[in-house]
Structure formats: C-alpha cells, structure tokens
Design brief:
Radius of gyration: 24 Å
Number of helices: 14
CATH superfamily of the largest domain: putative lor/sdh protein like domains
Shape: elongated
Strand content: 15-25%
Distance between the termini: 69 Å
CATH class of the largest domain: Alpha Beta
Mean pLDDT: 88
Number of strands: 20
Low-confidence stretches: none
Largest sheet: 7 strands, parallel
Strand order of the largest sheet: 12-20-19-18-13-14-17
Helix content: 25-40%
C-alpha cells in the first residue's frame, strides 16, 4: 500500500515546553508515523531548539488530517504554502472551510513573508485587509471581507514555559490543586501579582457573587485600592451583592461577618437594586455618598474600568448592566486588551466567556471551590489556566495580606 509523507519543522523551547512531545503524541494518536530527520537541542537555558520530521500517513487524506492537527501544536511545513483567501458572501457569514483560530500566537505567510495575526482569540476567523491580518468574530464579518480558508500558510507558536524564575505557575507544577498548603500558594499568587504590576503589566479580575457571600469582598476592594487591579468584569449579581454588603452588611440576606440571618434579610438584595435605581446609577450612588465602600466603590473612586454583563436570570438588572450580550462581549474585550494576567474568581459563566477572548500568552489564575469550573475552562481551550481549588473567602484575604507586605 502506497504511503504519503511530508517534511515538517518546529522550533522553540521544544523540550521543556513539551512542544515536541505533543507533536509526537498527536501523530501516534492518529495512527501516523514519523521519522526524526534532524534535531538540534539548545545548549543554554534560553537557547531555542529545532527539529525536522518526516510525517507519513496511509493516504493523502490521512496525512492531511495529521498535518492539520500538528500545525496547531506549532509545526510548519518545510515547503511553505501561501494562505488561501475567499470573500465573505454576506454580512456575518464566513466562507466554507474558513480557518478557525486557536488562542496561540499566530502568523500567516502573506506576500512572501510571515506577518502576525492581531487581536488573537480562539474560535474566530482571520480577515486579511490592507496588508494586515486580524482575528474577527463572526458578527463583525462583513460582505466582501477576505477570509483565510484551509490550513495552509499558517504558523502557530505555542507559549513557552515561564523562564524568569519561579512564579506561581512553576510553583504549582500542574493545572489544578486542592491539596497544597494554602498559605504558600497565596504567597506565590501575591508575588506574581506584584511582579506583574512592577513590570508595568495589566491585571484584570473576573468575579462572581461568591466573592461577597464568602466574605472576600474587603480583600478584593483592598487589591483595587492598592492599585493592583486594572479592570473588573462581572455580572449583575456581583454588583448587587457588593452594594447590599456595603450598605447593609449582608449578602443574600445573611450577615457576612457572622453568617447569621438578618431580620427581613430576604428583601435586602432588592433594596440594594432599588437604591441604585433611585440614584440613577452606581457612580451616582458614590457621588451622593450613598455608597462609601466595597468593590464597585473602589473601582469608581480609583477610576478602574468595569463591565457588568447581564443574563436572563438577573434581578433588576441594575441600570449599569449591559443587557445586550454582543455589546457586553465587545466591552469585555476592550477591558482585556493588553492584559498580562487575568484572575477568575468563582464564576464559571464569566470565566469561560473571558477565556474565549484571551490569547494563550496571558496568565490565567482560576480560584474556585468547584473543581469543574477549572476543568471546563481548560476543556474549552483555555489550557494555560492555573486552577486553585479553595474557599475564596479564606484565600483572597491571605493574598491581600501578603501583597500589603510589598507596599
């Protein structure tokens, strides 16, 4: 039976970032064969490595399937093809066989040179216009846009393992943890937050209402006040319960400080909503001194941008909440632009939504008592996420306490 082969090459930190291992695994998983024709391993810590492989399939279709898979792990064809472009037939419609993006750094072979794809996100298409390539969601596609089809002429560069010394990602050593000492993890997270900010980086928090319920609100407000947070992404619930706690000391009608049931507490969250509508907006509550503490208060006082995205289950929702999901997506993306670290706290819905908007080189820390939140986020493509399975009410105050030591 005739076999079909093609030479591919891959370069970078192939060994310690497991890039070469992943390529080998993908070929074998698809029942293909490979021969290592050339390999040069970097001798120093920062030296890149290079490998050239001959990949063999049972037929052309089988070979194409293998190549398509390993191209997404960082391999490129030795004989580089140009990209193929097709025009969009109408607004919000991509051509058949459009290239669906990953969240990894991507380049395309265009006009005989490699150019970067801007605005990198997963599960989008690539539009080429005026000599530039950009990642575009389907709703922003316009009739006549030239869109890449097929897999040819595309080079993906997976992120490398951090090399600047031990940070929380290296310290943890795996994607999730519920057993390592909490105090030590909090110290490492605080150190990584501090170093990111000291280097001029941007840190965004994606938060759920459990921050308030568990008693971690003061810790998050402190991080914002100290200047470590550059943006907040959340839903209606976090804002409602943050304001309820800030004005009445309760969350879901329970006294946060001792978990006792407040008198007529069942209506407190509706009182909070009514207070915001009475003021006209959350900023107006701050301006009129009806809101003098809490997460949203610190965002407004310190001019930290925030976006509240609505859902069908919201009470109210607050007048500040964006109820058009496509507008909310765009506003989320604006806050996430040039982010270096995103900390996702106890919100599966908003964490997965945010993960879909991030390039793979952004550090993602997921803090949740619920392990499936981390697993689902990674299953949907945000593989770089580091999960810390713990009670946020105990963990975040430890992080804030450790960060204060740097001030």
């Amino acid at each position: 039976m005739a076999k079909f082969s093609q030479e591919i090459e891959v370069s970078g930190h192939l060994i310690d970032s497991s890039i070469l291992t992943k390529i080998f695994d993908k070929i074998m998983d698809l029942h293909g064969e490979f021969q290592v024709e050339e390999i040069n391993i970097g001798k120093q810590k920062k030296d890149a490595s290079y490998a050239r492989l001959s990949v063999t399939g049972k037929n052309q279709k089988h070979l194409d399937e293998i190549l398509e898979t390993i191209y997404r792990e960082g391999a490129v064809s030795k004989t580089q093809k140009r990209i193929s472009l097709k025009k969009s037939p109408k607004d919000m419609v991509m051509p058949i066989n459009f290239y669906s993006t990953t969240n990894n750094h991507t380049q395309i072979f265009y006009n005989e040179k490699w150019i970067p794809v801007e605005n990198m996100m997963m599960d989008k298409c690539i539009v080429v216009k005026n000599g530039k390539a950009s990642c575009v969601p389907v709703r922003d596609v316009r009739k006549g846009d030239e869109i890449i089809v097929g897999e040819g002429g595309i080079k993906i560069t997976p992120p490398e393992r951090p090399r600047e010394g031990v940070n929380v990602f290296e310290f943890m050593g795996s994607s999730t943890s519920s057993e390592r000492p909490t105090q030590h993890i909090a110290k490492k997270v605080a150190e990584d937050i501090y170093k990111t900010k000291k280097a001029g980086g941007r840190i965004i928090i994606v938060g759920g209402p459990a921050i308030i319920h568990t008693g971690a609100s003061d810790a998050v407000a402190e991080l914002i006040k100290l200047g470590f947070i550059d943006g907040l992404l959340a839903g209606n619930a976090l804002a409602v319960h943050d304001i309820e706690y800030a004005t009445m000391g309760t969350s879901l009608g329970m006294n946060v400080h001792d978990a006792s049931l407040a008198y007529r507490g069942h209506r407190n969250h509706m009182d909070a909503i009514n207070a915001v509508f009475t003021a006209g907006s959350i900023p107006n509550m701050v301006k009129t001194k009806k809101l003098t503490r809490g997460i949203l208060y610190q965002c407004i006082k310190n001019k930290i941008p925030y976006v509240l995205a609505g859902s069908i289950r919201d009470d109210g929702p607050l007048p500040d909440v964006i109820t058009d999901v496509t507008v909310a997506q765009r506003e989320y993306k604006k806050i996430l632009k040039n982010a270096n670290m995103v900390i996702m706290i106890s919100t599966m819905l908003h964490s997965i939504a945010t993960g879909n908007m991030l390039p793979a080189n952004v550090k993602v820390i997921v803090i949740d008592i619920n392990q499936p939140t981390v697993t689902k986020l990674m299953d949907r493509g945000t593989w770089q996420a580091l999960g810390i399975v713990t009670d946020v009410g105990a963990f975040l105050p430890l992080v804030a306490q450790e960060i204060k030591k740097y001030k």
